[in-house]
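Contributing: when you submit paired examples, paste them exactly as shown. First protein:
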Amino acid sequence: MPNRSLRRFAAVAATSVLALGAVTASTGPARAALPTPVSAATARGYLAQLTVKAENRTGYDRALFPHWITVSGTCNTRETVLKRDGSGVVTEANCAAISGSWFSPYDGATWHAASDLDIDHLVPLAEAWDSGASAWTTAQRQAFANDLTRPQLIAVTDSVNQAKGDKDPAEWLPPVTGYRCTYVRAWVQVKYSYKLSVDSAEKAALTNILNGC
């Protein structure tokens, strides 16, 4: 088959697959498309207003924060963030990402398989519980766990997210030092938005990073 015919056949085949709804493509620059966090100055103001108190994890269970709920059609929160944060993301009819490119700002790595990524709760669910979410309703915890409006959810390298676990900024910061100011600004914004407290070591770490922003 001549090269021109091969190209025409490939184009027709791709068009037919898309028409059947098997895959869809979402294009855009590779980026960590978090909602932009507040400025360092605003974050410092927010931090000054946060209550400082010891944390209490009594009764915590991850299941108390229903997450990866349906956002639109067949897409849940995880799939929505993968599409938002990736470049050239192709999804199946059930919204699962089958290809694309994702940049993880925590460690500067680029990935081409969704299985290499976790969706990080920037303020971890356990940390939220420790600092006030234990008093919330299930609906409030669900809203927190699926928040696409604030800089709370981000696609990052799975092993880096697992190393972070439920640690706060006194215990863990992104390996890429140039991203730490953004990370801390987002952390303070989320805690302020949800009226969550900070412990003394956490506040000291946040203050130190913000003063250098």
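Second protein:
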Amino acid sequence: MPIQRQALVADIAALWELRTRAVRVSCASHYAPQVIEAWCAAAPPDRLPRLLEAGGGLVMEEGGRMLGYAILDLETGELDAAFVDPAEQGRGIARQLLAALDAMARERGLHRLFLSASLNALPFYERAGYVAVRRETYPHRSGLGLESVFMEKTLP
């Protein structure tokens, strides 16, 4: 049975490896191979340790194996990341992680969450209560402009 725990700075390498697998598999249907390669080659963002130290990251594990993770900037309400191992998709892991982040955000007094969603993830975020605001080109740190959709969610 999966367990949820706080993501730690010590988890960054494992988080990034999972994220890279997920991007290669899940995003390939919506982005060109050269975009996927540049996206996957990018190093973790400099702000990642700060977000984890602030308590905004959650990991779902089973038998000591990381199944997925999600990270929320608890100051701004930006959903920074939500990735599930491609072999574990469809089990409700990301949904559970987002629900836990929603609860954390409410405890912090946040009333609005937002993100820049990859095109393949739009249906998932819509089911999680996010609303598409506009299409945009996200300035990825790899130098790419990733086609995405800015979405937001009002917390009850």
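If you have annotations for the second protein, write them as plain sentences, like these:
The helical segments are 12-26, 33-41, 48-53, 93-107, 122-127.
The first helix runs from residue 12 to 26.
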